[in-house]
């Protein structure tokens, strides 16, 4: 059996990855401490409760399941929190990842797929960011992810750890079959907050800034459907298994949507207007973050075919109405 150890498999992206891995003939084993994940989301293989910083537990799990690769999603990922408590992010994300990487090497598991972020690029407004763009993170979250990228490169040189690094742009949408979806507590992301406001779970969505240098004054982001994103991970795994070497790939679509455009599209999908108020800019937000993702298309053969805004909102809305883990 081709077992893959999926850290963070109880979270939003990790749970979708487990579903995709199972569909591709792999056996995903979820390793998660359930601090931000949901046990209900572990539906596609065994669950091992544990923390990234618990080396003894990791060693036991590697020994028990003998994975051929690691997909490492587990991380804290709130930009604001990372600025208030950077130690938490360096300890959990960097310290935890280092412990995991050392355990993988010790177990002889030398294929590693890592979820990094466009936050490693920092504030480079109005530039299309490709994999060769400079990395100047402006928050501890982005800095922690960039540090893990560095660790992977060093471990490749010293120990032959082959890795694929994916730098995500804005992930949205949900499993179209409704088995898993997005649910964070607290929620900070635009699409689920917007859907909460639509069905009365919160009063109104605050638009963070309407005075940006964009056509409608609101921030522009590059949104990618979670199912397309995890498909790229399966392709990344095949890339490693084919011995193609370590590589970095951006995952976005190359098309930007402003906050106002996302709101307009949700109106057309749901036939309801999102109640909104206009607020000040959110500290740390860049004007425009758009990915150059040609490399993933050219080299991995990745085709993001669900990443239209309409499809992402349709799938997220279906999940929102039926699938929350806290029901
Ligand atoms: N936004 C609002 N109102 C809200 C929430 C968000 O107007 O209540 C806006 C934000 O200002 C931003 C856009 O919607 O312009 C998207 O915001 P999200 O919080 O959904 O996503 P971010 O772009 O802030 O964050 C994403 C990832 C992070 C990553 C970051 C890098 O979710 O993990 O990109 O910039 F670090």
Overview of the structural elements:
This protein has 327 residues and is of the alpha/beta class. The chain has 2 domains: 3-172 and 223-251, Rossmann fold, CATH 3.40.50; 190-222 and 254-322, UDP-galactose 4-epimerase, domain 1, CATH 3.90.25.10. The chain is built from 10 helices and 15 strands. It has helices at residues 12-23, 55-65, 79-84, 86-106, 140-159, 190-198, 226-241, 259-270, 294-300, 309-322, and strands at 3-7, 27-32, 47-49, 69-72, 111-117, 128-129, 162-168, 170-172, 205-208, 220-221, 223-225, 247-251, 257-258, 276-279, 288-291. Strands 3-2-1-4-5-7-12 form a 7-stranded parallel sheet, sandwiched between helices. Strands 6-15-10-13 form a 4-stranded mixed sheet. It has a two-stranded parallel ribbon with strand order 8-11. Helix 1 (12-23) links the parallel strand 1 (3-7) and strand 2. Helix 1 (12-23) crosses helix 7 and helix 2 (55-65) runs parallel beside helix 4. The two termini are 34 Å apart. 49% of the residues are buried. The mean pLDDT is 95. The structure holds uridine-5'-diphosphate-4-deoxy-4-fluoro-alpha-D-galactose. Uridine-5'-diphosphate-4-deoxy-4-fluoro-alpha-D-galactose is lined by residues 77, 79, 117-119, 141, 170, 188-190, 193, 205-208, 219, 221, 259, 282, 285, 289. The site of uridine-5'-diphosphate-4-deoxy-4-fluoro-alpha-D-galactose has 21 residues, from helix 6 and strand 9.
């Amino acid at each position: 059996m081709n077992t893959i150890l999926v850290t963070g498999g109880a979270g939003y992206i990790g749970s979708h990855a487990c579903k995709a891995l199972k569909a591709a003939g792999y056996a995903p084993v979820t390793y998660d401490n359930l601090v931000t994940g949901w046990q209900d989301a572990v539906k596609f293989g065994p669950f091992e409760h544990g923390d990234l910083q618990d080396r003894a537990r990791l060693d036991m799990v590697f020994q028990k399941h003998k994975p051929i690769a690691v997909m490492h999603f587990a991380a804290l990922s709130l930009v604001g929190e990372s600025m208030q408590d950077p130690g938490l992010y360096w300890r959990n994300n960097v310290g935890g990842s280092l412990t995991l990487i050392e355990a993988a090497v010790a177990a002889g598991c030398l294929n590693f797929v890592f979820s990094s972020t466009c936050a490693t690029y920092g504030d480079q407004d109005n530039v299309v960011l490709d994999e060769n763009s400079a990395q100047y993170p402006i928050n501890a979250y982005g800095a922690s992810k960039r540090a893990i990228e560095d660790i992977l490169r060093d471990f490749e040189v010293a120990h032959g750890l082959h890795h694929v690094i994916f730098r995500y742009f804005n992930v949205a949408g949900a499993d179209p079959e409704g088995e898993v979806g997005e649910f964070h507590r607290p929620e900070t992301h635009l699409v689920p907050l917007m859907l909460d406001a639509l069905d009365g779970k919160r009063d109104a969505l605050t638009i963070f800034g309407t005075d940006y240098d964009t056509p409608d004054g609101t921030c522009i982001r590059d949104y990618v459907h979670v199912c397309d994103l995890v498909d790229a991970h399966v392709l990344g795994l095949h890339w490693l298994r084919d011995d193609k070497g370590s590589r970095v790939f951006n995952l976005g679509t190359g098309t930007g949507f402003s906050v106002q455009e996302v709101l307009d599209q949700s109106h057309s999908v749901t036939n309801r207007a999102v109640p909104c108020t206009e607020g000040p800019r959110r500290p740390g937000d860049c004007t425009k973050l758009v990915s150059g993702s040609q490399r993933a298309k050219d080299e991995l053969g990745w085709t993001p075919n669900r990443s239209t805004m309409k499809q992402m909102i349709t799938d997220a809305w279906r999940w929102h109405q039926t699938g929350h883990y806290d029901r």
